[in-house]
Write a structure and sequence with these properties.
The chain has about 260 residues and is of the alpha/beta class. The chain is built from ten helices and seven strands.
């Protein structure tokens, strides 16, 4: 896929920052010396960490050059570096490893989280949030639209870029031995958006990327036209013209 587009991603900055704020509120640290923000994107969550832990050495890690460039401009109070979350390990012992909406893209993310948990010192915290929305109409209909056009062959592998998240019990069973305390929960957000075009605008920068990347310009237009048609049946407009995008997210906070 092509690189991410930070300006488009930040079109819904407030909505995307809310889960990061909710996750950070559950981090039971009064102070921290070393903090990592994994999958930092354009630095919107990193800025929350800088504010929460003034004086800490905070580093954002991402594999997108465009996102890292945007983050450096937006959050001068932190350092930023390129890294692949599937293999990344900290140098030394961090007090907090934080990740907002990134590990759902990582193959075998449970294994990656277990590896990171074991590198924490006593009292260190792993705090992670991931979208858990592949079974929502917004995402099921991406696959349905893919099967209904001449582009079906090109999109046969698009669904493999993400897997449905395991049940909370799987996280608990795999990670409990790493932590003296672990909390796992879901929060469902209902985002008011301006019609189905609002849903498409939101997802163009995230969930739709694997479905659009293999298509040429004309195919993308045709695919999105079909996708919008399917969305209209699944997301009826409210009296004010808005639709509600139901968005479940999984949260995990472990204390070593």
């Amino acid at each position: 896929m092509s690189d991410w587009t930070p300006s488009d991603y930040l079109a819904f900055a407030d909505e995307r920052a809310r889960p990061a704020r909710d996750l950070l509120m559950q981090v039971p640290l009064v102070a921290a010396r070393r903090v990592f923000d994994l999958g930092c994107g354009p630095g919107n969550a990193t800025a929350l960490l800088v504010k929460r832990f003034p004086g800490a050495a905070i580093t954002g890690i991402d594999n997108s050059p465009a996102m890292l460039e945007a983050a450096r401009k937006a959050c001068p109070g932190a350092a930023f570096a390129a890294g692949d979350l599937a293999r990344w390990m900290p140098d030394g012992e961090p007090d907090l490893i934080f990740s907002n909406a990134a590990f759902h893209w990582v193959p075998d993310h449970l294994g990656a989280l277990e590896r990171l948990a074991r590198c924490l010192p006593g009292g260190g915290v792993l705090a992670v949030q991931m979208p858990d929305n592949l079974m929502e109409p917004s995402h099921r209909l991406m696959q349905e639209a893919a099967a209904q056009g001449p582009w079906a062959g090109k999109l046969s592998d698009a669904a493999s870029t993400r897997e449905v998240l395991p049940e909370p019990a799987r996280y608990y069973a795999r990670l409990k031995t790493c932590f003296r305390r672990i909390d796992i929960w879901h929060t469902i957000y209902n985002h008011p958006l301006r019609g189905v075009d609002g849903i498409v605008s939101w997802l163009m920068t995230t969930g739709l990327r694997p479905w659009l990347a293999p298509l040429d310009k004309d195919e993308r237009v045709a695919y999105l036209t079909r996708y919008r048609e399917l969305l209209r049946d699944a997301y009826p407009e409210q009296a004010d013209g808005m639709v509600l995008l139901r968005f479940p997210r999984l949260f995990l906070v472990g204390v070593r």
